[in-house]
Amino acid sequence: MSTEGLFQIVSMGRTLYGKKPELVVQDAARLFSIPEPQARRLLLKGWVIKDQLASAQALKYRAGLHNIGLRVKVYPAGRFDNLQLIARIQVAQRRSAQGSKSDRSEGRGTHAPVIEDKSRNPAVHGQQSRARRQPAVSSKGAALRAVRPFNASDGMEHLFRDDKTFSPAGISAAGEVILGLIPAAVLPGIFILLLGFCVYGAGYALWQIPLAVWQGELNGVVVALSLVAAAFCIVVLLLVSPYFRPLRDLQSKPGMRALSRSESRELLRLLELLSTSLGLPKVQRVWIVPDARVFSAPSFSQVVSQVLPLHLGLAGVVALPGREALALVARAMGLYCGRVNGFLAWLVLGGGSRLESMQWALENERSAVCNSGRPSGLQKPVHRLLVICGHFLLPLIERLDNLHRALTSRAARYLEARADLYAAGAIGSEVFAKFAQRWHRLVHADLLVAEINRDALLLGQCLENIPAAVQWTLEKLDRETCKAIELAMAQASDPWDSGQAADDTRISAISQQRLPAQITRAFSLRDFFCDLDGLARAVSLASAGPDCQVVPNRQLLSSNSGVQEAVDVLDVYFNRLPPHTLLPLERPAAEQVKGMDLQATIDWLRGKLIELRGLREQRQGLLGCLVAMQLGAALIRAKVQISPQDYSLESTSLTAAQEMAAVKRSELEETERQLQKVYAIFYQRLCLAIALMPSKAQQSAQCHLRQLSAYEPLAPHLEQLAGYSKSLALLARHLTPEMVERELVKKYLALSARTLNALQVIVGSSETLKAQDLHSILDIKAKSDLPRHHREMRAALQAMESRCRYANSVIMQGYRVQLGTLLIPCLEQEQQLGVKPLRLLRTV
Questions:
Q1: Closest residue by Cα to residue 499 from 443, 537, 544
Q2: Same domain, 236 and 365
Q3: Among 80, 98, 123, which residue terminates a domain?
Q4: What keywords would UniProt list here (predicted)?
Q5: What is the mean pLDDT of residues 19-33?
Q6: Quick check: is 550 in a domain?
Q7: Cα(302)–Cα(305) distance, rounded to whole angstroms?
Q8: Are residues 236 and 252 in the same domain?
Q9: 559 near 473, Cβ under 8 Å?
């Protein structure tokens, strides 16, 4: 039977946010009428739940499984096989059993404490030959005793083994490299030939015009054909040009920035010693990112010179021991170790990354003439042409990616194994299995935090400290999740993704090498940063963007399932554009708009989505500028010397600052009026759906609507808190050592405390809000006492800023839960009426 057009449902080994695994197993057992032990297999990553499904059936199954809390994906039929997964699980179980026996043997051979693994207990094992056991025990005991804590008074050289026993030459294979270079060069060869054809074709077409003039045969047909041919070649050239952009530009993302020397303590020196010990390339520059990935994306010249950039994930620095964090660094640098091997890795890994970047650019309407996706002026027609043509190229790019993977699979596996050996050389092959387990858990925690932060971004919020959130999530993983992650290690990793943790096959290959550890001391990489927490907060905020509100980690990480459900409902109802403030509970005043029915209202909103997104972005930008200008004007009035650029001003003139603030205020008021008009139509849509409900459902919806109206007295105070939090952050950032802003700081602290107290009074006087437990959550002791010293004053500003942000986010979170509860029956009513919904708006 042909499987073309059929699909399979595959488990991702994870539950949706806020769902407990045991509850998902119970629901799955009821859904499929199977015992719970059998349903527990559905939590295995890569487990095929249903196969040979039509498209409609696959979507129906996926929706049903998502409803019970299991995260699944749809793949073409036959891509995954449960028999292969079961075989890999058996291999993992045998490896785990062998590891436990080895642990017991090692415990008998040494009395020294093991820093990296505290779970081993001394025990007498088996009835084996003493002659066979003693050499292995003594050698392993010596290796374990070598891992001892690092003293800060010792030099960094004492972190590494004195006698260099790791030889990079021992893990190179000339035959593998030569056989891998030829197929790896096919993909870049295709693009180079296409580039040459386009350049030659455009030049040849344009040459026909002067040639016709020389021969006396110039006419309109020759000119038209020449220009059309040249234009075609130029369009093709612009379409393929993203492939030739530097890989650093293609892989750059918000939050990534270079680490300065003032932010680290001898980190480059430590990396230099690591390179010397393992024979790795030198680190040219360190780029920091908030997540857990550690990778290198060098250019061709950097590969040749063997001086590479390093992208260091701060989540890995915070969550892993220093030896294991350096093992990830060694693996990332080991991929490109040696000019020939590095060139092979540059072709194999870089080629796939470039195709993925091209695909992302075409899917998100990016082009060579406008990489931001927002063309202006003469860019618009060319940009639109490239976007339209790019959609037709997407299937071709996917086929090129499949071709590249088919040709370079052997080379990719070789590079993957070679990089693993460098990681094992850093920590020793004996502990590589335990390291791989922690690596898998770190990747899992990183994915969970990324999903939480992505959902928060839809509401204009972001995590305060992403690395700390990853560390907290890693420490809070329950036993069932850890067991599922360990079983998922049987799933083969993707060799073209250097960030994927080692699977069982890779672990078995490393365990046979018996490589000694080059890093012999236990330490924390955190000690090599001057202010890691401040740095983590800075890159976390930069990764979210300036229009997001920073929210404490505990609030987003501890949210219940109702918050997640509300986020999903708001995402659908407002087409990924939910209001950042309270929804206006007033219908529009214009008679023409007020007289529309439900379908006409939705159609009107559909035509305003692009404008709504622009208004939201404009409002956030104007609000930030206005707050900065007002604070700058207040500082100028207090005769404080400021830098105008820090406060969005052009000069230090008080009159000019007040005029600019007045202009921004009028622009902000006009933008907010336009936003209120659009969101008033959303409220009209809500009212029309309620009016069409049955009487019982209508009464329930009206009750929820009254609960929403209880939040309206909080609106002005929430707006003030948002402005105060931004002002306090600016004050703390630019606070002078002499504290000349003392009186202004006192004023803003007092205003913030007064607003917080007003919020508590309003919430305490409302029975509806007290029933939602907002009063106990907002029990914040806001103090306005002014410290005397610079550090304490900055800490007081930051503490008050955190209180303002926390109060604002708690109230908005409770409001969104109530709004989502109201919108669920409205969406169901629209579906029952067969109303054409809003189309999904493409986001960037």
A1: 443
A2: no
A3: 80
A4: Membrane, Transmembrane, Transmembrane helix
A5: 78
A6: no
A7: 5
A8: no
A9: no
Strand 7-15 to strand 48-53: parallel, antiparallel, or no bridges (unpaired)? antiparallel
- Bridge partners of 287, per DSSP, are 258, 311
Q: Which residue type occupies 739?
A: M
**Rg of the chain (C-alpha set):** 31
Kindly state the tokens that stand for 838. 């809003």
Q: Is 59 in the same domain as 21?
A: yes
Is the same domain home to 344 and 460?
Answer: yes
Across-strand partners of 14?
71
- Rounded distance between C-alpha atoms, residue 576 and residue 842, angstroms: 9
Residue 136 belongs to some domain of the structure: no
Ordered DSSP codes for 591-632: HHHHT--HHHHHHHHHTTHHHHHHHHHHHHHHHHHHHHHHHH
Residues 335 and 300 in one domain: yes
The answer to which of 120-134, 177-191, 502-516 has the lowest mean pLDDT is: 120-134
At 93 the pLDDT is 62
Q: 760 CB contacts (<8 Å, ≥6 apart)?
A: 775, 778, 779, 780
Strands (E), 4-129: 7-15, 48-53, 70-76
What range defines the domain where residue 800 resides? Answer: 574-607+670-833
Low-confidence winner among 27-31, 82-86, 115-119, 178-182 (lowest mean pLDDT): 115-119
Query: Does residue 697 form part of some domain?
Result: yes
Q: Which helix (H) or strand (E) holds 308?
A: strand 307-313
Distance between CA atoms of 318 and 449, rounded to whole angstroms?
14
> What mean pLDDT do residues 220-247 have?
85
Give Cα separations from 491 to 72, 88, 91, 94, 435 (angstroms).
Answer: 15, 7, 11, 15, 17
Same domain, 239 and 336: no
- Written as six digits, the tokens of 804 are 């303002």
Residue 373: per-residue pLDDT:
63
Asked if residue 395 and residue 263 are part of one domain, the reply reads yes
Burial of 499-525, coded b for 16+ CB within 10 Å and e otherwise, reads bbbbbbbbbbbbbeeebbbbbbbbbbb
Amino acid making up residue 480: E
How does residue 779 score in pLDDT terms, banded at 50, 70 and 90?
low
Q: What is the sign, positive or negative, of the torsion defined by CA atoms of 71, 77, 80, 84? A: positive
Which CATH number belongs to the domain containing residue 43 in this structure? Answer: 3.30.1390
Q: If you ran DSSP here, which 8-state letter would residue 295 be given? A: B
Q: How many domains does the chain have?
A: 4
The one-letter amino acid at 824? I
Distances (CA, A) of 99 to 92, 121, 136, 820: 10, 13, 14, 50
**HSE on the CB side for 358, CA within 13 Å?**
28
Q: Which tens digits make up the pLDDT trace of 259-307?
A: 888 888 788 889 999 998 888 999 988 999 999 999 998 888 999 999 9
Measure the CA–CA gap between 164 and 283, rounded to whole angstroms: 20
58, 80, 102: which is the final residue of a domain? 80
Rounded Cα distance between 86 and 829, Å, is 45
User: Do 46 and 86 contact (CB within 8 A), yes or no?
Assistant: no
Whether residues 419 and 325 share a domain: the answer is: yes
Q: Which of left, alpha, beta for 216 (phi over 0: left; psi -120 to 50: alpha)?
A: left
User: 237-241: long-range contacts (C-beta < 8 A, 24 or more apart)?
Assistant: 237/195, 237/198, 237/199, 237/202, 238/367, 238/368, 238/369, 238/382, 238/386, 239/368, 239/386, 239/389, 239/390, 239/393, 240/191, 240/194, 240/195, 240/198, 241/368
Summary mean pLDDT of the chain: 81
Q: Does the residue 451 lie in any domain? A: yes
> What contacts 289, CB < 8 A, 6 or more positions away?
253, 255, 256, 311, 312, 313, 314, 539, 543
Question: Which residues touch 86 (CB under 8 Å, ≥6 apart)?
Answer: none
